[in-house]
Write a structure and sequence with these properties.
This protein is of the alpha+beta class. It has helices spanning 92-102, 112-118, 126-146, 155-178, 192-198, 206-213, 217-228, 232-250, 255-262, 267-278, 282-292, 302-313, 321-327, 332-342, 347-365, 370-377, 382-393, 397-407, and strands spanning 20-27, 34-36, 39-53, 56-61, 64-68, 72-90, 121-123. A hairpin with a 2-residue loop joins strand 3 and strand 4 (56-61).
Amino acid sequence: MGFIPIQSLYTSDNMNNCICNFEVEVFEKVTEPLIHPMSRLWLVNEGVGKILINSKEYIITKGSLVSVLPWQITEIVEVKKPLQFYVVQYHFERINELVKTFFNPDNVQLSFSQVLRKAPVITFGEEKYKEIQNMFHQIGNEIRYVNEDEKETGEEIFSNVYIINKLIEILVSFVRSNRRVPRETSIDASEILQFMYAHLNEKITISMLSQKFYMSESAIRSYIKNTTGLSFFDLLNEMRVGKMINYLLYTNLTVGELAEILGFTDDSHMCKVFKARMGIKTKEFRNTYQVIGDRCHIVDRREFYEIVEYIYRNHTEDLQLQAVSEQFKMSPKELNRVLSYQVEMSFNEFLNFIRVNHAAQLLLDSDKSVLTIALEVGYKTEKTLSRNFLQIKGRTAGEFRRKVKLEK
């Protein structure tokens, strides 16, 4: 069996600038496995069949709502009666960010992905099915309206708000129906891709995956290669392309800086992957779409990305959470929440992450003392640098320098 193809990142020309798109699909026979880098919701209107989602089998029939999260693998393995789906493809990261930011006044811990992963297929009764079907119709009609050339100025903003609310309403209905489904406790290899996607900002290694999934490192490598046709590191970069898009649109961070923030190991390779997946160079993409603008700016708030850029640009200064929060006219709690969505770190964690990476580069490229480097990257003492270096790199700054020199 060959590797599983990865679906195009955008199945519609409008997806670069819209929160979601709507399509109708018909399946009269089984399909080949397919990896989905973007989320989608399928509502089954006709037919009976079976679908595999990450190697787990589910029966689907009229009234079934199927949730596919980023980097899950699907395959229709049985079609008893021809299947007709409504399909809404959407940016999971954007919707998740919006719900946590604007629809969560009590700031409780929310995790759509955990609930949707637990039971990705729900079959509704006739009354609830009709209600969900009507929401899909409303999204489809509104998307067609957004794409029309003739509309009053400003109308598309309200259309996008309408679409976003309907999409969230569908997801909330899914989650509510999901609460009584028993939680999956087993872990298998089919979850590897989704685990990687959920932890992109961390230092993901083959060793980490081996311990998590109780598989040998060679078995992990073979599974990834046989499943996607990509090496472990190529797959990581492929996944990070999606997260890179918003930073290209809403910040002026260089490609090298983005590689560090988003966890890429090789910025030149990242650019090659980006061009291969998007058909355009990073510079051209940024110049084109920053001029066009994003029609869904209700979700993609430029100031969120400006916070990340500001911390990166000024990490050598005496940055304090309270002062930065006041500069961006938000509370420290809100700023930490924004950063947790953008880089999956708190203010202090992200600041230390940037400073330690800067210090590591200086340790490699210069003979400056650890104290001098500590002061240069923004710390007041050598001890503070060593403590944070140990926490992030697994060894003190001095040990790091000695080890590298010894290896050389």
